[in-house]
Structure formats: C-alpha cells, structure tokens
Amino acid sequence: MIPTSTYRIQFRNGMTFDRAAALVPYIKRLGISHLYASPIFTATAGSTHGYDVTDANEIDPAIGGREGFDRMVNALKAAGLGLILDIVPNHMAASLENPWWRDVIENGQQSRYARYFDIDWTRRLTLPFLGDTFEAVLENGEISIKPDPQTGKPAFAYYESYYPLTPTSWQGREETVLKMTDKAQLAALHDQQPYRLMSWRDAPRELSYRRFFEITGLAGVRVEDKAVFDDSHRLILELVRSGAVDGLRVDHVDGLADPKGYLELLRQEAGPDCYITVEKILGEGEQIPSDWPVSGTTGYEFIAALSDVLVDGDKLGDLRKAYEEVVGKPVNMKAELRDAKLLMADRNFEGEFTTLLKLALAIGQTESVPLEEQAVRAALRELLVAFPVYRTYGTVNGLPAEGHALLQKVVNKVKASENAPQPAALDFITRIFKGEVAEAAVNSAATFRTRFQQLTGPLMAKSVEDTLFFRQNMELALNEVGAEPLPRTFSVERFHREMTARLTHQPDALSGTSTHDTKRGEDARARLYTLTEAPERWADCVARWRQMNQTKVVFLNDGTAPKGVDTWMLYQALAGVWPATLAPGDEAGLKALEERFLQFVEKALREAKLRTDWVDSNDAYENVVLDYARHLLSPANQDFLQDFARSLQPFINAGLVNSLTQTMIKLTAPGVPDIYQGSEGLNFSLVDPDNRREPDFAALTHWLDEEASASWLSEEAWLSGELKQHVIARALRLRQQKPALFRRGDYLPLSATGNRAENVIAFARARESDALIVIAPRLVLGVLEGRLAAPHAELWADTEIALPATLANRRYHDILSGKEVVVTDRIDVQTLNGYASAILITV
Question: For the structural domain made of 529-649, what CATH number should be given?
C-alpha cells in the first residue's frame, strides 16, 4: 500500500513505543496514513539515533522492546494507520556490545561472523579505539589483563572496555595470563591476537575494515552475501510478513556493494505490497535507476527543487557580490569543491584510497608495461575527485550502459582538465573499472569497481555536505543535503520541469522538507531564502551588526577571530534559528537559544576544517568565536538585540509566507508528503543534534483541537505555527479522500499574468473528473507591508491565472478559506484571499 502521507518519529532521547502509541490519535486526526519510525533495533547503550545497531534481530529494550513495539503496532492498526521502518543494512556498530563484532574480535577469521563484516583479512583486524598507540598506552600503564566482567575470561582492559583474548592465547594458562604485568609479555600477548589495538588517529590510514563514511565506530556489513542478508534481516522480514510493518526505508543504499541486487532480494523477500524507499542523493539531472524495485527516494531532491520557487534568481548575483566583498575576493566554487574533495581523498579517506591504489597496482603487474605508482595514484585521485554523482552501479558482471556512459564522460572531463594525469594511467584505471583486464585479474577488477563505487559516495558527501557547505556561506538555505554546490539558475519553470519528471520517474517517493539529517529546519530555510530578495539590505545589516560587536573581535597568532566571513555565517545562522516570537528582553528565551546556537557554532567551525577540526581542535580560535556568539545573545547586548530583532521582522514575515507556500506545494505536488516530527508547526532547528529535539506534542495536539476556531487565521497563528498545522491537516485529509488524483493525476504548470505575475506559483493536478488547482505566493519580501494578518488583497490586483479548457468553467472548493470559487477560463488572484494562497478542489 502506498502511503498518502507519512509522519517521522525519532525514537530514543525519551521517545518510546508507548509514548508514540499515545500520539496515534493526534497523528490520525492530522490526516497521516503511516507512522515512519527511525531505527528501532537494539543499538549501543545511550544511542541517540539508532543507526549504530548492535543486534538487528532484537527490538531495543531501551525504547520498550518487543512488547512495547507490539502495543504501538496494535494502536496503529486500531486507528487504521500503517508503519514504515527505517532499516540499516549497510553497517552495524563496531562495538563490544555487538555480539557478532565481539565474536570476530575474539576468534578472528575462525569466527562464524568473520565474513559478515567487510574486513580485509590479509592483516589483523584493526581496533582504532585507543587514545594513543598501543605501545604508548602500554607504557603509560593504561592497559592491562583483567577478567572480563561479563564473561570472566581474560581480556585487555582499557578503562571501561574489555577486549577478549583469542582462546588459543590463554587457554591452559589462564592464571599465568591474568597475572601478567611485564610490558614485554603484554606486547607479545597482543601480537598473538587476531586484532591490533591502535590509536583512533591512525584510522584514516590503517583501518582494515570498511566503515560508514569516516565513522570508525560503524563497520560495513556484507549484505551482498545471502547468508549475511538472511541473518541480518530475520526480524525485519518477520515484521513485514506478519503485517506489523507496511514499509521499509533503506538507509544509505549507495554504501552497499550491489544496491540493485540487494533491493531485488529485499523485494523478493518482503513481497510486492511492501512500500520501499531508499535514502539516496540524486545529482543534477540524475534519476533513480529505473530497474530498482522501489517506490523512490526519501526526497532530498525535492528540497532542492523547492528552492527554485523561493529563491530570487535575478538578485542572487547581488548577494554573491556582497558575500565576496566580506570574503575579500571572488569565490571560485569549482576550485573550492575540488579543494574539499582533495582534502577528503588525501586525509580523511586516505586508507580507502590506498586500498584502491594497491588493488590497481597489483592488477598492473599483469600488464605488459606496468605503470609508475605515482602516475596511477594521480589518475585514480583525479577520477575520484571528478565524479559528479554519488556512484555508478556496476556489479561483478560489469557496468550497465548508463554506468559506461557516465564513466566515459568523467574520463573525458579529466583528460581535458588542467590537472589531467598521464593519459595511459587514466586509461588503465578505466580498463580496470570496465573489467577489461587479464583473466587472472578479473576478480581483482570486480573488487576494485565495488570499492571505488563505495568510496565515491562518502567522498562526495563529506566533501560537500560536511565541508564545503560549512566553508561557503553566501546563502545558508542553499547549503542543504541534496543541493548542488555549484552556482546554477533558479526559476519556477525549472521547478515545473522537476515536478513533471518526478511524476514520471518516482510518483510514490517521499517528499520531505525536514529530516533528521537536514542542515536546518524547513522554516529556517524558508526564512533564509528571503535574503536573496533583499541582498543589499541584508549586507547593510551585517555591516552594521559587525560594527556594533567589533569589541569582541580578537587578534590571534593565526589571524583575526572571528573574521568577517565568520560573522556573515553567524548572523545568517542566527537569523534562521531566531524564534518568531522571541523578544530581545526575554532573558530565559535568549539563554535557551544560546545553548543551542553555541553547539551549532562549534560544529560549524570544525566541519569547515579551516582553522579548527574534529581531529585537531584550535581551542584559542574556537573560544574566541564562541565568546563572540555568546555576546550576540547576551541580555546586556540590548543595542544589538533590539536592532537585530527589528531588522529581522520583514524577513520573518516573508519567511512565514514562504513556509506556507513550501508546505502547500509539498502537500499537493507529485510524491508522498513526509512530515518530520513537529514540522507541522514551525521548525527553526539547526543541524543535528538540534534537529532531533522532541517537539511540544501537547501544544500541537491542543492546536488541532482548536481547528474549528477562527483564531487559526490570526497573527498569532502565523507566528506560532498553528496556521501551518491546520493547512497541513486539511490538505492531508483531502489526499486521503482523493488518493488517485494525488498519486497519478497529471501535473499541469499554470502561468500567471499581470501586475504580480512573478510573485505567484500555480499548478494543477488532474485525473478524470477530479481537478485540483494550487496557487501560492512567492518573493513577497518587497511587497508585504505591515502585519501578517492584515488584508493584502490589493497586492494582487490585475494578476490572473490562465486555465486550460480541462480546468476552466467549473466550480471549486477552497480548502483553506472554505469558500466556493466559480471560475471561467482564468482566476483573478485578488478574489482568493489576502495572500493569494488557495488549494482548490472541484466539487
């Protein structure tokens, strides 16, 4: 069954199955068809997200266990709601709490689970969880032999961790081993283990297992092996087959060795009726492979498409100019992207790169004229850095046709670049990728292709989302998961093309606007889009605020802190997160905001990897910038706070209008609208963990109880989010009444003419006798005057929407205003309401 809408719940951090079950009446009244749950399987103790699974066949007792899960399912079924589970096939926790991983540590290649994880068994398993090298911690007396508190067996004790000794190294001499204190003996005993304890700092270079991105605590799982698939999906499939679970969301599908093969097996085992979506980021012009047996993606590309509606493309150049004046030089985004990718390839993923290089060199030995290592290194590096999408989808049998075409396109680009490597070396890498090698090297070439494909995704993600998007801050709303990092044009026409393609390629995909991974909440993004409408005004504000807070700028050995470019980011981030109703004199409100904002600032500085980093933090620089940020929110800094709040008000108002437009589009465009917990109200969150905070469900429930009241159209309802919630509730109920219209109805772009033609977006959905017309405002910062609740009908004088014959001369019901609307061959926007907002359904 295809959902009509989904509601994402983040379990853990206080959210349990019983608490979720208690929310079922609210979720049902909101109009949701399916609860969409974050990972529920047993994860590491204290996990805040659940993606660090330790037991894929147990429902986590920390959130209620199987009994609590069953109670929630019963509540959902009683209400007629379905359930979608977020599953994590790519990785598990590399933790002693994980019994499979622990068994591998203890027994090495003799473990039943030795092949479950993606481990290079040509060397000892590396365990990069020490604060220093093994030799150093041994010398410092930080490691010793003690009985494991859980098993009583001898183990290397390192603070609270107990690494089991392999049985052959201690059985028959247990007492002797337990009494070992001599450092030479301990070192010799360590050498007998199938693993090697090492410093976490050495992981990027020396890791012997595939990890999730650059997180050493998450080990890659070989679900391409049928036995591993069966063992890791036993409970998942049981829940699907029993009817408890109706759909699956596959986390990081691009991390798998063979995504298509995995999805085909999952579909076969889960059955044809299971709703399956995949977390995948689509590049510019990229579509999900048509032969994948899934309903589509989780919707990051939908967020990117919305920016075409809400960004003022004509003025974006002025914002870029103002930003570059603060930077002090023009910004070459292609060069910046290349620098970020090179950093990832050379440092953060050095080990993965070296593995690929060694494979290539070994294959090269079968060539009649072996190439120099440096030439092969340069060719491999350039090919990785030039890859424009997350990956290709070659298998052990080779590359599909589209993979061949993409590879050749990238190779041609690399050959024509100023950094072109030796053509012979690049051709050699290309032949390996295609499998055009000597018979003796065919298997090695297949391994190379798999490893290459599993690296391009993390390399892209960490380069763009977790580096470049924290370095280049011209417009933070565009620094979002799934967005293109390079400059592009923005237009409503482009949005219409994207939605037409979406209806063709993945009409049942999720359409998200906020997730647990987005860089900021949807309403923060909607507000920040408005900066593109008034770049000069924004630049003047930043210049004035910098001057007001100049006394907090400090000169350090490595330069000024914060620099102008840092402050540009800080003021923009603060503008996005600032609560719509926060008063400058509200000390408690400022303190609560400060706590969240400082956590974001530290993360932003470290992710940029310029003057500080997660690996080597620059405390002096960080402390100065954090003090500056703290000063911005100090109750004593009233001159700034009053100016900031007053100057921000037009952006707040226009942002709330953007929010409504964004919401209306999500609810009616092709795709299945996903509501991230609490985002039916206003979501001004920052990057995780801020975006995973639990919303105020009591307030949300109370608002919905008051839906019949006229107060939801008031100024207060705009500012609180109550208006947004009620629009969502009305549209979702309509989707339940007309599922075929929303799922299969044609997408028809509509054109506006007249005075405010550029300030309106309109489209229709039509199927058989049903028709829906959506009209919403855009780019209203310069035309919106006064209070949000004030009448604005005069703005839309002489603005009309032309209708094709299939939509014309009919009666419609506006689900927002409740009015009946009779149209001819056009709609006079002024007659709708003060905000040109309407969702019209035929009656």
Answer: 1.10.10.470
